[in-house]
Amino acid sequence: MSAGLIGTEVALQDTFDVALVDLDGVAYKGPHAIPSAPPALETARAAGMGIMFVTNNANREPETVAEHLTELGMPCAPTEVMTAAQAGAALLAEHVPAGEKVLVVGGAGLYTAVKAKGYVVVDSAEEHPAAVIQGFSPDLGWRQLAEATYAINAGARFFATNLDLTIPNERGMAPGNGSLVGVVRTATGVVPLAAGKPEPAMLRLAAAKAGGTRPVMIGDRLDTDLKGARAADVPGLLVLTGVSTARDAILAIPEERPSFIGEDLSTLAETHPAPVLAENWWHVREARARVTEGRLVADGGTPMDRLRAACAAAWAAADAGLKVDVETLPHFG
């Protein structure tokens, strides 16, 4: 798959058979739906596109996630949810035999997923667990992190559902599971095996669960959602409703670059023309961009098409070993 933006002749919802949709920053932010998300997903479903919600948040169970989405105007069945807890339990099963004791450091969703794989869940290192698995929960405290540290230092294997350093909510950015995993990692010197995005296994599991053969990953974070899409060889759509900004997209490293960029989920109903190089300018419909003496210039067209052209120009320059002056990047928005 190309490391740059690609194009479609028809709308994304008619090009791909299933959308792997991130939650925080894509479908909702905190307790509120992103306004464009419910109608966009309804339109995509009506066009025949399957929806699988994929989240690195391992705290809640699929039933709870589905209920929340339904309350926010995005009807969803529990079978249409893939959590990092489920992916983490699947990773655990690849390395630790069923029936072993596992110390779970996380929320209800992780407890349920680990039990479903046939493990004996314990909450103390004194039970001599064979493994520790850590997932996000806003209720985690020092005692749970200490038990994990004791168990790992005693020889337990260390797993993490995901390594997101931050998590968005209605108040801004808060510490994510990766930050909390970092406490245990610092205390033990042990790096965990991780299951969630950007690891590819979670997206492959989600696509298989949805029965899709032409999936597209939709996320708001380059370092997890879009990096995971690249790792899984799945086209990725970056929406600008969460963490990563237009500026971030322009400066994206190859392994985190999206295949498509849109303002929000409504872009599923749109065609995405591929950038075209002509006379030293990258063109997307009426928009164009180029890098001249390290300075990125973009004009014409809509703001989104200018951003797409700007990404094509900046990425081509970076791949050619040229420096792009971050102080002179155009404003998009």
UniProtKB/TrEMBL annotation:
UniProt cross-references to InterPro entries, sorted A to Z: HAD-like_sf, HAD-SF_hydro_IIA, HAD_sf
Keywords carried by this UniProt record: Hydrolase
Keyword Magnesium: no
Recorded GO MF terms: hydrolase activity
Pfam families reported for this sequence: Hydrolase_6, Hydrolase_like
Protein name: HAD-IIA family hydrolase
